[in-house]
Amino acid sequence: MVDLDGTLIRTDMLHESALRVLRDNPFDILFIPYWLSQGKAVLKRNLSNRTDFDPNSLPYNRDLLAWLKQQQTQGRKLILCTASDHSIAISISEYLGIFDEVMASDGETNLAGKHKAEALEQRFGHAGFDYAGNSRADLEVWQSARRGIVVNASADLVKKAGAFCEVERVFPSASLDFAGWSRVLRVHQWMKNLLLFIPLLAAHQITNMDAWLYLILAFFSFSLCASSVYIVNDLLDLESDRQHPRKCNRPFASGLVPAAMGVVLAPLLLLGSLALAQHVGGSFLPWLLFYFVLTCAYSWSLKRLMLLDCLTLAMLYTLRIVAGAAAMSMELSFWLLAFSVFLFLSLAFVKRYAELEVQLLNGKQKAHGRGYYTSDAPLLQTMGITSGYAAVLVLAFYLNSDVVIHLYQTPEFIWGTVPVMLFWISWMWMKAHRGEMHDDPLVFAVKDKASLLAGGAFAAILVIGTVGWPW
Fold this sequence. Notes:
Layout: H1 13-24, H2 32-37, H3 40-49, H4 62-73, E1 79-85, H5 86-96, E2 101-105, H6 113-124, E3 130-133, H7 139-144, E4 147-151, H8 155-164, E5 166-171, H9 178-185, H10 198-202, H11 209-236, H12 238-242, H13 251-254, H14 259-277, H15 284-300, H16 308-327, H17 334-361, H18 377-399, H19 402-407, H20 417-433, H21 441-447, H22 449-467
Parallel strand pairs: 1-2, 3-4, 4-5
Helix pairs in contact: 11-14, 11-15, 11-16, 15-16, 16-17, 17-18, 17-20, 18-20, 20-22
């Protein structure tokens, strides 16, 4: 007897079904309390009837699965015995092709804990079966079993299972260390929130200590909000991530972290973000809320709409700059806004282009969960390069404005930023064209030597233009 949720797969199909309903038919979530009042089996049946899934994409416990296949070749009868709905269990059983039979919840009886133990004992007798499980609810089943196989469980649960029956095999759970938590929160993505400081630097107010204090609070507020949204995005995008060669290793997609933990963690991070935002000056809080709403809209639907997804990504990057100016109660420059929109639109196209190239290499014609075909890649490349060069053109116009003369001591040196930007935009697209681009262009840029050198040259030119040539 093999349990499904948390045992054969590193996830829970009840949680996954609820998340799919939330994503595809959000108003149906309102029926969950009513279905649950009629019993957990009724809830599972209704959720499974409203969702579809690909059994191929689920995060299977590969070690357990390999062992089960070995047991099958030795003539051991395998039965998938799960509290998940029967339709889900049948689909997974047919895909794997190793089970002789399926026992599952049927819309009336929730086959878990006591009910599962009674059903198995009635069918096979006391100590007439071996059982593979993972949770405390399985202790009642191990009480009736001959032998137990304990999967993804703590040492304490292994000990308790051993008190009821002989433990034949233990498959340890993967531990979530600091690096794992960092991936859950996507701490490496926090570097994007350094864009909040751009208005401070652009306005040459580096000595404004009050502004620094507000911006540091704003940075952490934005970072917690972004982590909350990243978790929501990961939970709603599980199936698409699992079909991606790199994103399949994300904590929620791989099953390293239960989806239920993400459902609890996301609102807590958002509350922490809002608490910090209360201490930031200006109109920072409304812009933070707008960012949150827009990112949620992106996660739910906009990322599946062709072109609108890239425009939204460009807006989300630009919103960080707008929020930084709002935290300082500073008026934002038209030039900075225009430059940001075109630049980030180009980077958004880089991101989509790189994703399509990966899908093309894997023999797919369409990106799962996105509005693009792999044949769209050349057109995205054209639009992205055009947007990047438009950003450089805006920069050139800005350098010819009266503002530059007032801000910079030697404004003629600032023209050196134009060839640097032309090089960097061209370099990013060249790397994307060669299939060497990361899923996130900014993450790629901070690890790429040429991009770091370009950034250093850009900053050096601005410093020289500000303080003057030293000779």
